[in-house]
Amino acid sequence: MHVMLRPASTSAPSNIGNRPLPFHPNPMPLELPGFSAWIECEGSKLACHAVERSDDGKTATCWIASEVGKTFSIRWSRERCGTTQVMSGGVYIDGVQCGLLQRMESDEPSTRVFYIHGISTSSSTIRPFTFANLQFTGKWVQICHCGAVHTDFNRTDENEYTETGNARHIGEIELKIYHRKKSTIVPATWTADNPLGEPKIHERAKKATSHKVKYVAQTSLLVLFPPDLSRLGDETMCQNSTEQYTVTLGEKLANFTFKYRPIDVLRANGIILDTAAYPGPNFATNLEAAHDPGNPVRKDGSNLALLAVKEEASKEVARVAAGAPQDLHIKIEADAQDTDGTQSATAQDEEDADVAELRALKEKYLKLKRKIEMKALRKRLADLEREENGDPSTSQGPAKKARTGTDATGYIACVQRNERPSTSQVPATKVRRRSSIMDLTGDSD
C-alpha cells in the first residue's frame, strides 16, 4: 500500500499546520494500548461518550457532540514507546482520506501531540475541517455548505445522483496508525480540490441504510444519518512543509473512530444522559446521577420523552422499509412532556405512595419483632423464678402427681407416669396401735 505523507514539523506552535504540538493532557481521550486520540473543537477537547473497544485492543469507537459552523482538528499522542519502528497516522472523514499521513519517528518523544486540522491547498494556506448542515427535504437532499444552499430537485438519473464517498461512514472521523515499512522523499504537491465534495444522499441510499441497521430500530434515524457533516472551511494562512514522502504501510497498530452527531440527537438517543448545555468531562458522574432514583432529571419526564422519540423513529423505519412514499420527519422535542407537567406529577405521587407504604411495612415489622422478643423474655423470667423456688418442673413443665399405693407385702410402690412400679420399693411405715386388750392377771407395770 503506497500513500503520500508529510513529515511532522517541529517548528513553533504559532505556525498553523499539520505538526506536533506541546502535550496537553485530555481528561477524556479515546485510548488504546500505547496511543490516545481526541477531537479538539476551537480550543476545547470534545468528551468521548459510549466508548467501545475491540478484544484485540486495536480498535476504539466513541460518540462526540458536533456543532455546526465550528472548526475542529484530530489529535493523537504516543503514550509509550512500545516499538522501535517508524509509524504513520492518517485521518479519514466520512470515509474519505483527508490530508497526508503524519510521519511519526521511532525516537519521537512520547509527550508529542500530532494533529491534522484541514487540507493544505498551498505552502501557505489550508482549508480547516468544519461541521456543516445536512438537511433532508423530501425525496432529495439540501446541502448547506459555507453559507450557501445547494438544492437539486430536477435530477432523474438515480445512478448518477448518488452519495459522495461511502455512505456507511458518513458522520465518522477515523484515525488510523500504521507501521511504516519504507519511504521516499518527493517534492510537495498541492491541490485545490475538495476531497470531501458535496455529499448528496439519494432517497434509495437512505432506505438501504435504514434497512441495514434495522436491528437498532429503537434508535432515531438522526443517529443513522446525521444532520451535521464535516466540510472544509475557507482558506487560512499557515506554514506547511515543502516535503512529502511516498511510503509503504505495514501492520495497522490502532484505529480510532469518532462518530459525531449534534448534542440534542445524542441526548434523544440516550448516548448522553446529562442535561447540561454542553458535554463536559464529568460524564461518569452524570451517568451515575441519571440512574439515581432521587435525581430530578428522572422525574421531569425526560425518560418518557426519550421513549417517544425512539418509538417515533421505529415507526419511520417501518414505513421506509414498507416502501411507503413520505417525507422523513423526526422530532427531537419532548412530546411526552405535557404542558402542565401532569405526567411528572403523577409519577411523583406514585413514588411518594410507594415510599409511604414501604415505611409503614417496616414499622409494622419492627413492632412484631419487639413483641416476640418481650414474650421470650417473660417466659425466661418465669423459668428462672421456678428454678429458684426448687420446682423441678422448670424446664419440663408441670409434672403429673405420682400415685402411690400399698401392695400386699406392705411396701409402697411408687407409680411412674407409665403406671409401672419402679425397681426401688420403700418399706411401709408400721403404725403401732395402742392395744385395746385389758390385762386380767393383775400384773401391772
From TrEMBL:
Segments of skewed composition (Polar residues): 8-17
Protein name: DUF7918 domain-containing protein
InterPro entries the UniProt entry points to: DUF7918
Short name of any one Pfam family annotated for the protein: DUF7918
Residue span(s) of domain DUF7918: 37-272
PANTHER family for the chain: BETA-LACTAMASE-TYPE TRANSPEPTIDASE FOLD DOMAIN CONTAINING PROTEIN, TRANSCRIPTION ELONGATION FACTOR EAF N-TERMINAL DOMAIN-CONTAINING PROTEIN
The organism's taxonomic lineage, starting at the top: Eukaryota, Fungi, Dikarya, Basidiomycota, Agaricomycotina
Source species: Athelia psychrophila
Disordered as annotated region, ranges: 1-20, 383-445
